[in-house]
């Protein structure tokens, strides 16, 4: 038993003086300040395994909406264990004819893996303005480079499910249609900066609740 | 003169063994392989001050086009000295009624400073879908966070000029209209992922040269 | 049609001068030099959508081995499209009683999502030496912070499948048993640095093919 | 109008659970703790467009001083919107014979663009100890790699103005003369570590207010 | 003396508006929140030179323990001045027959320099599973790449001392034996994920104080 | 022996397809292109333990020069194993009255540990222009934040030795005196940008071999 005592000495000399050290991880403390690198860290004593586990992706998202699709995120905002670790995940559910509209993630690249059904996915490159399109089957993987416009569409006759991972705990999500037609972006400016017709802009604002 | 000799010894002991060291900068060598961090570095012996100077922004861009505007970049592709340094710059020229259409930079935040005229600029946030709009006068600065949709419009009665700097030597530029209407993105998919009408899509493809 | 011509001028002024720009992505060119940030980039003209799609995870890994498990990676070494993007993915197959032995990824955090069966997973923190254990069901997600020892075990009566994503295109994989017993690490040093008994070391070297 | 309701569901499923998410930007909250990555973020509800706009660079700096020059910064300390975004900007005013003395930015590379007059600028490389000098005219751009000694001098017969951008929201600024002669750096140590004569050191301490 | 006044104007225009700017360093404030990038910064007015100096490595660690060795860290947890700077240091003391057991640093690469005695050190690569072993004498340096298993053993007849530096202010330290045998990691799972025999596991748990 | 075969299958499925993967380290290949992130990587098959060991710091630097001091670096240029790992080391030798003149490392923070003698060290902060000075004894550690002017002076009656580690494999070294007086920096510009007298500049140019 002397051994235990003596080894403990080594261990203590290494870890004892820590002022709330968080060297292994930084579980989000949603009650403390947020900074450019993420949420503040929960004190280690309060961390449990459930901070590292997220069970919200086990149930299908609700696809009874216009786009017949749902995005269920497990970003740092929902999943405290990924805070500061440069990774996160989300679940996509696409009913038949479902679509995740054209969008970007301002802060991350994305890897998608199909776990059910068939998905037609694509992105557009910026430098050469090339459209990269592919129909993906179960088990297929596609990568969408950071910040580029992309989309996913159910390409088959049955529900599709995919998991999408991101190179950030906080990838962000900007859907082009929401940015243009679901807020108070003045129609005149929308039209001027997109060349869309006034009627088109007003129609989609009507659908998406935009004003201005 | 002994001093020179002796000090030279110190200096040599520090720098002599270098195998083409590039510790200060990495001027782009456009003939060598490119990697995720940028272009390969020119051998130091071939570097001159002109690699660090770019004179292409001294002349107005040609605004005799549909958008009455021009973007003249000094990114690592044009300006070898910024390679690997995490910064670059471009010039915006906007004739009266000129517009830089809605676009994103996938890899950088942007700071704009107006040096002539008046510019109305804006961006849309992703998390809260808020439109941030401002009319900027000479000397005013605006920041556009990385990866978010934004635009610039000449807000006055005369030509406007601005310089825009980026937090990357290679920020990229993706104009929404070009991504949708100036390539072979199938119209059916454009419509499905943007909710735009078929007539609108085809009209803009006509203007911008898109097919499919 | 004048429009096309005029707009094309804008577009050209932006993208024409590029010396093989890779601003959107950097698909791995396996024939060119590798650097600390990853593989060199394929020339854009040679890039196709298949560089961004990986189909190797659609088939089960072969679990007819000692550990009744398989890891099938889609890292930058196999999947050129993720090169430089800070993300990658792999598939885990665990037959009944299958186990992914204790291991670390030196260069990435990991997010695991169960897509079939039940997995008992765990990791050990460094600062406080706490074991975080959880039994995960279909759809559950767990995060393993970078560089920490962790493992996955089939916790049920049927085959389990999971996808694991990494915050690096090249996370690495170091299985403790392989590092100790499947190479020429001298037994005397293994014993001295792990406190394992000589008989134990030699037995496992026998199983795993180690020498010394 | 059902559409609005249904789409709103998607939008809510994406953004509703956020605990004050700041995924798009992190406007500085000067009343909260600061960390290595920058200031804490203002709560999104309190952010306005004015956080992203800085108007302080529209007026000339006061050049009625010894160096006949002024540096007016828009760093994260003055301009909350750039916090965490890896970019910032400043304005240089140089009256005739004005000079920005030899200095370094410890945390950023710099890109300078001349908007009025003529500026003679230079930097010294570390590895090869080469002086890179250039006379820059209106519209010319020069890059100064991170951490290297550099300077700007009015090279003409009239006032010069430039904007300088940085690859950090907080580049820092260390003017060699201020570091040596404008604080309590003991003269003996200044002389020992720079080889400057005692008389020279004391003279400049007199000018710049140094003691010791 | 007008000079002082005038120059002071320049200096003030640069630094006066700072809201507690920390542009040069971020000395740890152990009483404020911690984030993914490290501790919050002490207010500059409270910083003294002693925050940048650590005297705890001047005395030998206590090697009167089982492993006849000691690790004395100067990480951000002990040494506030390194917070956020991406570097830290520790002292190794190895009595005759002393050993730093097989371990990893999850967050950093390490450089070791021997300052007294002889040390036999090694690490195991992940990709190729190669053991790199070397006997190091006074003044010799060895680098251990991030996240890989490694160890140090006194290779001589007298006490050895080394300093080890890390590419992080918070490298972490995970000793394999402690992770397996000095906590409540269930023996059944230890055995299943390491192939070690039950007797071996229980023996080492006895020595190191593990339960389960 | 079946075990070996079966386990080998797992191992192969993980590592076999590698196209010269470098996931663990990137030993510098001095014959291949260099990029912003460092040297290209040697092919793994050619890597030996000696790439990770540097023996050049075991011998004292030659201090028979003007400054009675020597800096012996083990940066990526000399020590291929640290390439891309964000760390490096150097040895300082200071004879009695020896001095490492005022200098900066453009790309790294530094940690110094005294292993023999006494060293008086200091740095000057940029934001507040404060001089931080300390006399360090054997075993004492001091950190110098990135990019700030600093120096080391032998503070005792006997030779001093220190090891300095850096948060970069390629920290760079710019000695103020060399930058000003040991190249062709025109004296007129030196004087204009430093306020030094012409006689002082010419005197030091004479000592250090500068022209212009």
UniProtKB/TrEMBL annotation, chains A, B, C, D, E, F:
**Location(s), subcellular:** Secreted, Extracellular space, Apoplast
Task: Detail which positions bind oxalate.
Answer: 105, 110
Q: Which SMART domains match?
A: Cupin_1
Which keywords appear in this protein's UniProt record, sorted alphabetically? Answer: Apoplast, Disulfide bond, Manganese, Metal-binding, Secreted, Signal
- What coarse category fits the chief subcellular location reported for this protein? secreted
Tell me where in this chain the Cupin type-1 domain is found. 55-202
Q: What pairs make up the disulfide bonds?
A: 26-41
Molecular-function GO term, any one: manganese ion binding
Q: Pfam families annotated for this entry?
A: Cupin_1
Listed under GO cellular component are: apoplast
Name the PROSITE patterns for this protein: GERMIN
- Family assignment from sequence similarity: Belongs to the germin family.
What PANTHER family does the record point to? GERMIN-LIKE PROTEIN SUBFAMILY 3 MEMBER 3
Q: What is this protein called?
A: Germin-like protein
């Amino acid at each position: 038993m002397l051994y235990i005592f003596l080894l403990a000495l080594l261990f203590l000399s290494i870890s004892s003086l820590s002022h709330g050290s968080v060297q292994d991880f930084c579980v989000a403390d949603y009650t403390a300040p947020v900074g450019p690198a993420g949420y503040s860290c929960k004190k280690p004593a309060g961390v449990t395994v459930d901070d590292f586990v997220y069970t919200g992706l086990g149930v299908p998202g609700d696809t009874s909406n216009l786009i017949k699709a749902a995005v269920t995120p497990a970003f740092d905002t929902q999943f405290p264990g990924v805070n500061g670790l440069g990774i996160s995940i989300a679940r996509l559910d696409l009913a038949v004819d479902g679509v995740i509209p054209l969008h970007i993630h301002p802060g991350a690249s994305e890897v998608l893996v199909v776990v059910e059904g068939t998905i037609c996915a694509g992105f557009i490159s910026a430098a050469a303005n090339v459209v990269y399109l592919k129909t993906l089957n179960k088990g297929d993987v596609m990568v969408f480079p950071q910040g580029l416009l992309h989309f996913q569409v159910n390409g088959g006759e049955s529900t599709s499910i995919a998991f999408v991972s991101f190179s950030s705990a906080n990838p962000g999500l900007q859907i082009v249609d929401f940015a243009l037609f679901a807020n108070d972006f003045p129609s005149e400016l929308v039209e001027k900066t997109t060349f869309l017709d006034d009627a088109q802009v007003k129609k989609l604002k009507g659908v998406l609740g935009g004003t201005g």
